Amino acid sequence: MPSHTKLCVEMCAMWPQWVFPRVIDHGAASVSELRRALGIHDVGDGSSGSDSDGQSSGEADAAPAPKAKAKPRSKRTAAAKKTPAPPGSVPLRQVRGTKWGPWPIAAIRREATDGTLCHVGWRGTCRCHHNSWDKASDVCRKELFFQESGMCPQEALRRIKGWLVAGQSIAEDDLSGRMDHGLIHPTELPLLTDAQLDEQLPDM
Fold first, then answer.
1. Listed residue (40, 63, 65, 37) closest to 50, CA to CA
2. Shortest CA distance to 105 belongs to which of 201, 173, 171?
3. Which stretches of the chain are assigned E, i.e. beta strand?
4. Domain locations in the chain?
5. Which is nearest to 5 in space by CA: 41, 36, 39, 31?
6. 30 in helix, strand or coil?
7. Partners of 1 in beta bridges
8. What's the rounded Cα separation, in Å, for the pair 20 and 22?
9. pTM exceeds cut of 0.85
10. Which CA distances in Å does 21 have to 6, 26, 38, 39, 175?
């Protein structure tokens, strides 16, 4: 018999028989019978009773909830579209151009979203005019972009050639020659054919 049960039985045996007749008559009782005889009732709603080790079941630490696994990030399978970035977002790259008469004309390329270079315009370099306030790095030249002008590469190239030819009307010793040549917009000039433009090349 457990020690606490034995102790309760001994204590009850010392009291008058009219207090606990059931305990004394039978000489032994279970824990539940002694608790009922003594008028001891369990307190609580049953969720925190005593267990076999004498510890409250409410004191036991609850098992930690399992952590939710993070979902793996999906990989992008769609290939990047080969389109040039908006003007001014990435630096331009100019490849080695070809000479048309005395003037070099080069293709302007811009890096696309997939890393390739896209042809986006033409650059014509005059180098015949200067301003009195220019720095040594200032050069007379003009750029024309397809997207901004709405032109195809062939038309834009002819426009740049027409701009170079138009600069011949500006004297090379003009103190504001580079500015005056820059104010001439290629789209404002007559669109000439390649043969007509070649006829207007200066003598080498």
1. 40
2. 201
3. 92-94, 98-100, 103-111, 117-125, 141-145
4. 1-42, 92-199
5. 31
6. coil
7. none
8. 5
9. no
10. 17, 8, 12, 14, 132
